[in-house]
Amino acid sequence: MNKTTCQYCSGNGYVHVAVGGSETCHYCEGTGLEKDELAIKQ
């Protein structure tokens, strides 16, 4: 199965925030994968 990397965090699972540092990507919930891919795996 092909893993589709999250377009918002580029598969890193976290995003850099403007105030400095980083936080968990809310779109993929830190997995680095697209939501659609997560639904298929479960």
Could you describe the 3D structure shown?
It contains 1 helix and 2 strands; from the N terminus they run ββα. By secondary structure, it is α+β, with helices and mostly antiparallel strands. It has one domain. A two-stranded antiparallel sheet has the order 1-2.
Features:
42 residues; alpha+beta; two-stranded antiparallel ribbon; 1 helix; elongated; DUF5351; HSP_DnaJ_Cys-rich_dom_sf; DnaJ-class molecular chaperone
Task: Please give a quick description of this structure.
By secondary structure, the chain is of the alpha+beta class. It has one helix at residues 35-41; strands at residues 14-16, 22-24.
Got a strand count? 2
Structural class comes to alpha+beta
Alpha plus pi helix count: 1
Q: Roughly what fraction of the amino acids lie in strands?
A: 5-15%
Order of SSEs, N→C? EEH
What is the topology, as strand order, of the major beta sheet?
A: 1-2
The percentage helix is 10-25%
Return the average pLDDT rounded to an integer: 82
The geometry reads as elongated
| Beginning-to-end CA distance, first to last residue | 13 Å
Low-pLDDT parts are none
Query: What's the main sheet like?
Result: 2 strands, antiparallel
Count of separate structural domains: 1
Radius of gyration: 11 Å
Organism: Anoxybacillus mongoliensis
Protein name: DnaJ-class molecular chaperone
Pfam family, one: DUF5351
InterPro entries: DUF5351 (IPR035272), HSP_DnaJ_Cys-rich_dom_sf (IPR036410)
